[in-house]
Amino acid sequence: MGPVIDELKIFSGNAHRGLATSVCDYLNIPLGKAEVFKFANDNTFVRIMENVRQRDVFIVQPTCAPVNDNIMELLIMIDACKRASAGRITAVVPYYGYGRTDKKDQPRVPITARLVADLLTAAGADRLVTVDLHAGQIQGFFNIPVDELTALPILVKHFKDKEIKDLVVVAVDIGISKRARDVAERLNAPLAIIEKRRLGNNDHSETLNVIGDVKGKAALTFDDEIDTGGTVVNAARALLDHGVTQVYCCATHPVLSGPAVQRIAKSDFQEVVVTDTINFPPEKRNGKFTVLSVAPLLGEAIQRIHQGQSVGALFS
């Protein structure tokens, strides 16, 4: 790659155009023009409608539902930009789909998170920007630079401003406890952990016991994503059974599959705080949800990458 990388260009597929527009508004540049649609035969077609030769191109596309369509759009957009002689192509994937399939935990299963990494690299991505990966080691699946941003400061600030008395941060399972401890430290609150056991591959989990002192406190449950909502709703119930006075919830990614929105509407949560890494249209939100934007975070990271500055300094 030559040293000449001209002006910054941001494009978006169909996964979350609203977020890409907000990032462009933050950077005070227009969203790049591109056609991304499907032919009648279900084939995805992409045409970049402006000159990207030697430009610094960023493609904003979370690989959320429909996951496979959004991954294909991203791959084809990368290929289109590469063949149009883009100077550098960065895939901005705020939510990394297949991130849960990050290891062989049963016989004869794939490591799809690694496969997707290979596909992105093969398509021609020079760099990846993402937010709160399900497992940090996914960074190592790439042979290109990966900038993993975190929404923790945004979520923490929201709860700091609320000044909730006697707060305890609760990791909804042991796997997320390290990141939950970081949240607890930032909020100057103790940490508790819910031990749960997953049953088979059917998305159902069984909540077991609460490790830590929660009685008489306000609890803030923390996870990286809310999928079907079963885990967090069961966690809220278990915490109330253990004498918690009120329960809040925060997570970076609102995956919200199947009955999740209805489950949370009926749940015991005072408030469920998520970010807009995944498109969450207002008509799906009920009174429980608060959505915080990661657009300034992504915009700042994109600007720093473009100007050759440190991205890590954002969080130091």
What does this protein structure show overall?
With 316 residues, the protein is of the alpha/beta class. The chain contains eight helices and 14 strands. It has helices at residues 17-27, 67-83, 112-123, 152-162, 177-186, 230-241, 260-265, 295-307, and strands at residues 6-12, 34-38, 44-48, 55-60, 88-93, 127-131, 146-149, 167-171, 191-198, 205-211, 218-226, 246-254, 269-275, 289-292. The model has no long low-confidence stretch (mean pLDDT 94).
The CATH class name of the largest domain reads Alpha Beta
Shape: globular
Which oligomerization state do the chains in this entry correspond to? Answer: single chain
Q: How helical, in percent, are the residues?
A: 25-40%
Portion in strands: 25-35%
Please outline the major beta sheet.
Answer: 7 strands, mixed
Number of domains: 2
Please trace the helix and strand order, writing H or E for each element: EHEEEHEHEEHEHEEEHEHEEH
Uncertain residue segments? none
Number of strands: 14
CATH architecture of the largest domain: 3-Layer(aba) Sandwich
Radius of gyration computed on alpha carbons: 20 Å
For the biggest β-sheet, the strand order reads: 10-9-8-11-12-13-14
- The average pLDDT is 94
For this structure, the CATH topology of the largest domain is Rossmann fold
